[in-house]
Amino acid sequence: MRRWSIPLLWLLAALGCGWIVWTTPVAADLTLFASRADPVAELLLEQLRSGPTTRLILLGLADDTETERATVSQRLAERLRASAPLARVVNGADALPEAELQALFAHRYRLSPTVAPERFTEEGLRAGLQQRLVELQSPLAVFQKRWLAGDPTGELLSVLKQSGSGLREPAKRLGVWFSPDGDRALLLVETRQSGYDLAAQRAAVTAIHAAFTAARAGTGVRLEMSGPGVLATLAADTIRAQAELLSTLALAVVVLILLLVYRSARTVWLGALPVLSALLAGAAAVDLLFGKMYLITLAFSMTLLGETLDYPTYLFSHRRAAETVAGTLRQLWPTLRLCAATTMFGCLAMLDAGFPGLSQLGVFTVAGVAAALAATRWLLPALLPPNWTPPQPMAVGPWADRVLQPRPRLALALGGCGALVLLILIVEVPTLWENDLAALSPVPRELMQLDQELRTALGAPEVGHLIAVTAPDAETALRHGETIAAYLDDRRAAGWLTGYDGAMRYLPSARSQQQRQIALPEAATLTANLNAALEGLPFKPGLFAPFVDAVAAARSAPPLRPEDLRGTLLGTRVDALLFPGERGWTALLPLSGVREASALAAGLPQNEASRAYYLDLRAETNRLVADFRAAALARIGWGAALIVAVVWLGLRSWRQVAAALIPVLLALVFTVAALLALGERLSLFHLVSLLLVLGVGVDYGLFFSRPGADPDARRRTLHALLVCCGSALTVFGMLSLSALPALRAIGLTVSLGVAASFIAAVIAARPLLTKMS
Amino acid sequence: MFVIRWVGLLLCWPLAVVADDDALAQVMRALAAVPAVEAAFREEKTLAVLDVPLVTTGVLYYRAPDFLRKRTLRPQPEDYEADGQWLTVETPDAGRRQFDLNGYPQLRPFVEAIRAAQAGDQAALERYYQLEFQGTPADWSLRLTPRDADAQRYVAAIVLRGQNGRIDRMETLEPDGDRSVMTITSR
Fold first, then answer.
1. Contact in structure between A198 and A233 (CB atoms under 8 Å)
2. pTM exceeds cut of 0.95
3. CA–CA min distance A146, chain B (Å)
4. What is the mean pLDDT of each run of 10 residues along chain A (773 residues)?
5. Is A495 exposed, middle or buried (0-12, 13-18, 19+ CB in 10 A)?
6. Residues of A in contact with B78 (CB under 8 A)
7. What's the complex ipTM?
């Protein structure tokens, strides 16, 4: 009964943790990098997550003839508008449908930027009427004359100019957008959901592919697709495929190693239990404390928990026939406990970091290591027969003694070498960090290039630069937007940028609308002015009655609000650029062709009630990563101090502390030096991998300097550490072969670090113990 | 007797069509043979919004195969120039603006009605219009009815009149009853 109570308890706990993990969402965003007290960072990440520029999908239609490309462009646009759940599909053809044109016409006196008192005086009206008369003589009059009776001052034209002049429009051929060289027809699609909502993006991409297959029927036109969402989907797919392949291979090889070394199937599944416990407990703890887990935390934490793979190996290799499993564990317990404690305390400093990502990493590791330790200490003996030993045919022979022979001179040389390398690193290292997350992107270079080409041809705003205005309400945001628009118009004339977009271009603030309403004269005055202006002009009497009525109606109409435009194309544009959030409203002004970013940012007009921020997404992301790394490094420093304290508490001897910790210090120094020599620029992935190296390396040092061990025990320790180091080298060595920069970074760092830790521990641990005694 | 007349009509009808087609082809060949034209024009627009017709005068220039310029001199100077796919508009107020005709498909039929006609390019005309030919090569009229529903919103028909390779008159009928008549006098 007692024998089964522990496994039963474990099973219940595992099921409970599994349930928590299963029911808690995993978030695939970057907020974990953001400090909790940084308003710009919050805005920025909001933009990175769901800003309008992330929702754009750029389409190019290549091959076949120009006519076919244009035809397919039209058919594709029609199909997408009819069927797919997209916010916007544009290909340059007939930008405004009749209904939208009618809506603009209906609201012309509130929307037109040219409405001013002088337009409605006798002279102003006369000038307008004469202008209309000139237009009537033109061959193009057939398109315009229907608006004449209601709009003699030509406000509709002003509205159209205003909303059409934002971002540069691509060149047109056969009525649709084409790249300047004519090789590609171009379309722009805007999804409803964020570019990083991978499920929604995948659905959009699938819908586009389906519509294209139908639209291209019978032609040789080829579809090219790009945009943040498309790239993110692709990246996720690539990472998943690579990670699955490599982890399956690595798992197979590790199982093979275990079978080869211990000749026992039991070691394989028992060996997996501590890791499994660690993952479940860590994930459940994070889920309970934070309510959600970041995908990247999960990935980093799984790397960190690689250490717990070693725990059962320590037990298996130290087994001997003369004692029980529980007896072996009792002997190992002080060292094993210390191994786990060092890792846990090393991560403890991260718990209270200002960055949610660091806190999660800390919680995950502490809970996971504790669970793995408990599983090794109590679950494994409960599941093993009391006298079980692995067949162990590959036991270490007399050569082990030669390896373990203390070599003080070699150790001294190693130490001296390490000190020298450390000195070089301290002088060099600040310049060697990689802050650019894009450098670690798994997206192939050709696709990045295609993205750039399509973006340039379409004149689509770059993901890079935008101005964000935060305000307590929509009206304040629009007013501030109008001030900034005036500023940008001015700077555009000076060539600082080529264009911008913004909600105020489509919907003026209520204040501007009211100013325009005040500019409109009352009916009697208007009629008098109009009659005077018509004197001598050939217009039919009574023709402009609709104009007089429209002005009278516009004078008393309430200002248009964002909600009045809902359901129209114009409304969709406004909603994308002006939206409510947790803390008031945000208005966005995406910029294109920015040449003088810092000067633009410096002169940005500010308001009392609202704030404008200039966001250079790439620079800001890099800054976030750098801040995150600085915080992580500081925490690791505190963690290192805690590790020293814990080891001292456990061993109560500075000599032993030195023997346990100096080898791993040397290993870290050598690993970093080797990485830099290989031309790697250190990123977050390297940093997290170094944490794992620290955890594993401390364990090696502790085991090799285990007090009171006889030569036989040392041989067994060597056996255990060879197995640990061998499997880690296999798994992470495979990762280092990956073409994905992130996986390669982790693989290379850990395999180099584990090898260095092992060698340093073998060479330096014993001499440090004996030399000083 | 009645039956014979019907049979006779039925038999002759394709002949009549062939004769028309022949005459049309003949006119098209004559038009295509003209390398360049310089002509004065007088256009009279009768519009519902105006009390009196709007009269404009100016000069037309054509150079085979696809250059056409309409230069209005009175009452307001205006210049429209279609050269290949490019349409250039110049007015005293707005200055010079250039459009790619490919980007504005609704403009194309208006340009081709006279440019493709003067070029004798029947295929181009038929792409945008249904053709109805009447008369003889020496005194013909060609009625162009837009095929495209979008173009039908703006034009009911365009009627060209001419003698052999010369266009004398272009009448544009709009669906709302507005019409314009342009008379062309070769210089």
1. yes
2. no
3. 10
4. 77 87 70 60 65 79 88 89 80 71 87 88 89 85 84 86 67 80 87 76 89 90 86 75 77 84 84 88 89 74 77 86 86 90 84 75 90 92 84 68 78 86 78 65 71 74 77 92 92 87 89 90 88 87 88 88 78 80 83 85 87 82 77 84 89 86 90 87 82 87 78 83 88 82 85 92 80 45
5. exposed
6. 134, 137-138
7. 0.83
